[in-house]
Amino acid sequence: MKIIEEFWGGIPLLHVAPEDNFDTELPTVVFFHGFTSAKEHNLHYAYQLARKGIRVLLPDALYHGERSENLDEVQLSLKFWEIVLTSIEELSFLHKYAEEKKLIKGHPGVAGTSMGGITTLGALTVYPWIRTAAIMMGAPNYVELAKAQMHQFETNGFKLPISGEERKQMLASLARFDSTQKRELLNQRPLFFWHGEQDTTVPFAPTFKFYQVLKEDYQDVPERLKFIREPEAGHAVSRRGMLAATEWLARHLTE
Questions:
Q1: Could you tell me the CA-to-CA distances from 131 to 63, 128, 134, 183 in Å, in that order?
Q2: 2-254: what fold?
């Protein structure tokens, strides 16, 4: 296995793949990390995938890792959706760049934890070429989630630095990536979810409700949709969940 640090178009990333096939076309996963995390914190996923013959690209999100601008958590929270939407936009570049370098075999998978899972669900609404996805502790309900975040800020006495019109425009922009409003764009692609029922950071209930609704869309291909729920787990993916996610991605990228 080989791990190298690279910059693709100014995006710092870890590039992980089997050493013997590092420069050949391989099934590929782009893996997005969580809020306040960084690319190297998900190397255990990359390790499991590379063992199965999968190439993994782990980029640093805007304002994270090597792209940090030393913002405190409140400042970073105010930029949450800018970070998510930037990652969705940059995914298109990473995909194109990998294709130009002849690194990808077929279409790539996308995965992520927490903010990375939220990013993954948004990306599925705009990129039909995503072959499969694994969402750990993610949420599809962009508009509802953004409203809840703003309400929490305001309840805590923090005045948001946006006008009413800017708020309206922001919610309209997020609606374009809201999977709950654009279920048809998922198009029965293989989707894996993991979520702990005790998660107080990204609530379990909305994502599980979305999965239950999605089952109607996957009636003809129920094997393409999986949700692992862990009753005692909070906002941290269990080893069981990590292994199941990597197994899912590898299987659907190589079948």
A1: 28, 8, 11, 16
A2: Rossmann fold (3.40.50)
Each residue of 32-79: pLDDT tens digit? 999 999 999 999 999 999 999 999 999 999 999 999 998 988 888 889
Beta bridge partners of 55: 28
Please report, to the nearest 10 degrees, the dihedral formed by the alpha carbons of residues 205, 211, 212, 216 taken in order.
160
Count Cα atoms within 13 angstroms, Cβ side, for 33: 23
Question: What is the model's pTM?
Answer: 0.95
Cβ-based neighbours of 204, under 8 Å, separated by 6 or more: 195, 196, 197, 198, 229
H/E segment holding residue 18: none
Q: How far is CA 90 from CA 141, 145, 149, in A?
A: 21, 22, 24
